[in-house]
Amino acid sequence: MRVASPGQRVGTAASYDRGTARWILPPGSWGGSILFRRLVAITTTSLLASGALAGFGAGPAAAAAGAPADLITAGQACATSAPGPYLSPEMLNDARAVTLGGTYSGEPVSATARQDFEYWDVDRPETVFHRDDSLSGKRLYVQIESPETQLDGVTYAWRARVLDGADSSPWSDTCYYTVDRTGGEAPAIASADYPSEVYSGGIGVPGRFTLTTASEDTVGYRYRFYSSEGQNPDEWSSVDAPALGDPVTVEFTPSASGSHSVAVSAVDRAGNWSDRGDYQFNVRETRPGVFSAAYPESSEAGCCANLQYNVGIAGEFQFSGGKGADAFEWRIGSEGSWASVPADAEGDAKVSIAPTKAGVQTLYVRLVLGGTRSPERAYRFLVDDGPTITHDLNQRVVIGSRVTLHAKPRASSVTEYVYWLATYTPNPTPEKFTVKAKADGTADINWLADNSDLLGLYVQSKGATLSQPRWIGLSVDGAAPSITRTGGDVPGSTATFVARTEMTGVTAYTVSVNDDPATQRTLKPAADGSVTFQHTPATYGTHWVRVVARNAAGISTDDGSLSWSVSNGPTITSAEFPATGAARLVPGTFTFRPRLPYVTDFRYWFGGDDPRWVSANSDKSATVNWTPSAAGDYVLSVQSYNGSISSQVTKYRFRVAPAAVKVTSVNPAAVPGGAVRAITLKGANLHRKDVLQVKLPGGRTVTGTVKSVSADGTTMTADVNLAGAPLGVASVTVRPYGGGQSPVVLAKAFTVAPQAKPQATKRPAISGTAAVGNVLKVAPGTWSPAATSYAYQWAANGVAIKGATGSTLTVPASVVGKRLTVTVTAKRTGHYSGTSASAPTAAVAKGKAPKATKKPKITGTAKAGKKLTVSPGTWSPKADSYRYQWKVNGKVIKGATGRTLKLKSAWRTKKITVTVTTKKAGYADAGATSAAVKVR
């Protein structure tokens, strides 16, 4: 561990605190704070021959008068005998160095005076290290930083003197220290109270843990207990060993159940920590279990509340203690009185609790078992009276738009709402806004999205008190303008940019190039909200534009940017060696075209080959031939020259590989025979010079004409002559261009199908009147080529009429009000069938009303009190049903709508008639009246 912290001053009165394993330094002392980082030369010399170190090995000589005194070794007073203090450089200071110092009390020295330190391994006194440096006042100080002079386990001796020209002070006393860099192996940990890997003890039950070091120089221990439940300490605790290397016992009282551990390191005399020892143990749970779906457990406000519950709404809490439990005691808060509920046979209980206030509450529950009360279980839950918030934003808002949130209270007497914004940039004092509530307690919160840093909003209702806050997560899209570019790839050519943003109501765009203030412009948008601007780059290299949009409210979008490369290097193209995909092992060419003016030559090379030169043609381009010697990845570098001026180097990367040609499919799957047809092959590594052959049904092979191949080699189009080809399945063979390529065959590639279907040159036409019961006819139209037969399908409002497949149709009642069409299918041998539909008829009208071939007739005795009966007569076509209306002297008898009528005395001498109305689906109604009979 660190003995002197950075910046701490160290003096002669330092003492070691075993409890903290730190050196305690007096105020105003010096030494450790002077963290000189000056690198001075280290000179090694043997002084045995000169006698300068006479007496080495026989113990230190006493310092003469005038020698440096008040000697300090790493902040400690000089130890004049070995081994001296044990020091770990890693623990001493930021420089990881042993500091040596002292005070010179002799005569004043000149500005040229120097300090002279010498130090040595006491087991190798023949080798002495010197540090000779200028002297600052009368204080001597040096840092021993070199790893070669801080070897682990070595005891060093040192002394110092002052040099002034030819004069020197006597040597100081000799001081000793021993370097110790290692803390040793991990200590052992044991506990009889809490054995490892078993459940024992309990909350509040103390346990003793014995820590035993593996090193003899241990002066203390550092330890820290962890629990899987609750807060764990950040700081380590420390304890002294009774004597050097002795074990210690520490006590720990668990405050939680479940998995625990203790981590321990031994601390040696130099402050080094040993490897860490870990001990796992488990604490038995003695507290009751608590659960509530109504008020779920939560340790923080705004989390996990069940919004169906609120202040004054009772919710169920379940307590569990296991069989044998007597009862449970509970209370809300630490000041309330305890209530008791008995446990059932399973050791469980339920209580209903209605919280009296909002916010995070704590329910304390303890188990009563055999008259003994367990430790309390603290169950924290949130009573959330925060408002409900609705909106239709779908969690995304574009900057500059206005947002409306609808707030509904969940607390009483709400008069207003308070809301504030939460941003990615922390703000400890956000501005809060207030909105008055309506009479029903609701409110609409209108907010202008002017900040793309937004995370969301908090909303509270306010009445007699403030409710819990409601969090609404929102994301504001900064609507950074998107930018597209055309041109400007070459110095002196003009680039045209189009920028647009999702923010509405844009009034201006600010654009700049390469962040140069001199290029900044403010432009008005076009009618569609976009802006178009231009820039002509004068130099090659990387350029960029930056665009910001602004609306009438002064709200700006995020920055939109686009970078591009401007080059004056030549362009390189090659049909045989494309930059994408794999090229074949075939000869090919590369064409260079300059971007510099007046180019006379090109310099080019492949990979690490020596450069070659080629002169430009009259059009300033050049073409070179090249044949790959082997498959692999290649880089072609080209540079153009205009006298002494050279362009940038253009690098063209491509791959040469044996073509793993594949054919995976042919489209269309069915190709009409009878003529030259186009087909499309899908596959891999296809080439324009590949040979395509088709084996037709029956065995004849024809060669196709390759029309095109896609740049990535995955698509080939070709023409194949299928004149005279029989119907059936054809296969395709591709013979790859280039050496060492095997043919690729796709069996069952496509089907030679019937030829084109007949086309209607004149549509089918329906004749006749579209009314129920009428007969309609269809003329099939005319077709090219001519059909050999026809099929028909009648439809009503586009839905096929079942069974209506003839050239005529008797209109059924089911299609009244619908428009009729007929689809004619023209068939021709060796061809697909063609179809054409007629124009629709007018909406089908009802059929003509039925006619009475025999009028209704009244039978019975026409005398008061007697009953008359009517027969409906006969009708053509036959009716589905009849309706009746009796009349007296031509006036309707109310309610007389049946086939019979009982005569009243009031009708004496009056005439009785009955009108019969027919009902038939799809036909108009018809009526007929009977002859009158006179009531007697």
Describe this structure in words.
- Residues 843-870 are annotated as: Disordered.
- Residues 848-857 have a biased composition (Basic residues).
- The protein is mainly beta and 936 residues long.
- It has nine domains: 15-179, Immunoglobulin-like; 188-283, Immunoglobulin-like, CATH 2.60.40; 289-383, Immunoglobulins (Immunoglobulin-like, Sandwich), CATH 2.60.40; 388-477, Macroglobulin (MG2) domain (Immunoglobulin-like, Sandwich); 482-566, Immunoglobulins (Immunoglobulin-like); 571-656, Immunoglobulins (Immunoglobulin-like, Sandwich); 662-753, Immunoglobulins (Immunoglobulin-like); 759-837, Immunoglobulin-like; and more.
- The strands form 22 sheets. Strands 3, 6, 8, 9, 11, 12 and 13 form a seven-stranded mixed beta sheet that branches. Strands 47, 49, 50, 52, 53 and 54 form a six-stranded mixed beta sheet that branches. The protein has a five-stranded mixed beta sheet with strand order 15-21-20-17-18, with no helix packed on it.
- Strand 77 and strand 78 (891-892) form a beta hairpin.
